Amino acid sequence: MRETLALVDKYESWMDGTCIKVGEGDLITAFVSGSRFAFEESAAYYKTVNVYKFSRHFSEIHYVPFLEAYVKALGNNEYYEQVLRVNTMLDEPEIKAKRLNGKLWYEIDDIQDLDIASSMFMEDGAEKMRTMQLRYGGYWRYPRLIDFCYLVNPYFPPQRLIDEMKANYGMPRSWRRGAGCCVISVLGRMSAMCMTRSATITGLQICRQIKADNREVQKLLTEEGIGLRTVFWWMHEQPVYQKKGLFKDERYPNAEYLARKGFYIPSGLALTEKQMEKVVEGVRRVMANMSYFESI
C-alpha cells in the first residue's frame, strides 16, 4: 500500500507544467519544473496530475516542516511542488508515483481548459467531434488524434537534417534556442530533398450564391464519416482580441467571407488510397446537394 503518492501519467507533447522522474519501486526521484524541463530527457518524464495523498507521518515529519521553512525563506509566492522537490532529495523520500496508464484526464486551470475537457469527456462520438471542430485552433491538445485537414509534413525534419544540425550546432537544446539561424544555414543544401517530401493542403470555399456556410458543410461531411477543418476566424473577429478592445469597428470582408465559407478537407501523404477515395466520394455527394464549391 502506498501511503504517500502522487497520480502521474506518461508525459506527452501536449502536456505542460511540473513533471517527475520515477525510480526503483515507483519512488519519485525528482520533480522537474518548467524552467528545468529538458526535451532530450522527456521520454523518461511523467506528468503530475496534481492529485496527491499524504500520510500523517509524511505530513508531520517531512512536508509541513519543509513547507514552513520554505515560506519563511522565500515567501508565499511559490509552487507547492518546490517543497516536494526538496523532499525527493532525502535519503527516504517516501512519496511514490501511481501511474494512470493512459486513463482519460485533463488538468483544468482556466475556462479554455474547461472547454477542452468538456469535449474530451463527451460520450456521444458525433457530438464530441462537432464540439471539437467548433474550437479555435488545432487538435494538438487531443492525444493521439491525427488531423489530416491542415498542412503537415510527417517526414520533416529528416534524420539527415537532424544529424547535420547536431554536428554543426551541438545538442538539440542549443539549436532550439537559435532555431531560425541554424535552419537557414543548412536548408539551402537540403531543400531539394525536403521539397520532394512536402505535404499538400486542400482548401475549398462555398460560392457566394449559396447561402450555406462551412458549419453546415461540416455537419454534412461528418454524417459521411469525413472530418473537415474550417478556415480560422481572423484576428479581428476572435473573442480574445475583441475582449481586449483590439480591432474595434474594423472590417475585412474577404477574410470574413473565407472564415464562414472556407474549409479544408483531409489530404496529405499519410492518407491511404481507400481513405482518399472515401473523401472524394463524400465531397461529391455533399456537392451534389449544394450546387457547387470553388477551390481556394
Task: Describe the model.
By secondary structure, the chain is α+β, with helices and mostly antiparallel strands. The chain contains eleven helices and nine strands. The protein has helices at 56-74, 81-87, 111-120, 125-133, 159-169, 172-177, 179-195, 214-223, 239-243, 253-261, 273-289; strands spanning 5-10, 19-22, 28-32, 45-53, 96-99, 202-206, 229-230, 262-265, 293-295. Strands 3-2-4-1-5 form a five-stranded mixed beta sheet. Strands 7-8-6-9 form a four-stranded antiparallel beta sheet. Helix 1 (56-74) crosses helix 2 and helix 5 packs antiparallel against helix 7 (179-195). The longest helix is centred in the N-terminal third of the chain and has 19 residues, at 56-74. It is elongated, with a radius of gyration of 25 Å.
What's the quick description here?
This protein is an alpha+beta fold. The protein is built from 11 helices and 9 strands.
Keywords for this entry:
296 residues; alpha+beta; 5-stranded mixed β-sheet; 9 strands; 14% strand
| Rounded mean pLDDT score | 77
Tell how many strands the DSSP assignment holds.
9
Task: Give the C-alpha Rg.
Answer: 25 Å
> What series of H and E elements makes up the topology?
EEEEHHEHHHHHEHEHHEHE
In percent, how much strand structure appears in the residues?
A: 5-15%
Helix content: 40-55%
Q: Which segments are poorly predicted (pLDDT under 50) over 5 or more consecutive residues?
A: 171-199
Summing up helix and strand content along with how strands pair, one would put the structural category as alpha+beta
Shape: elongated
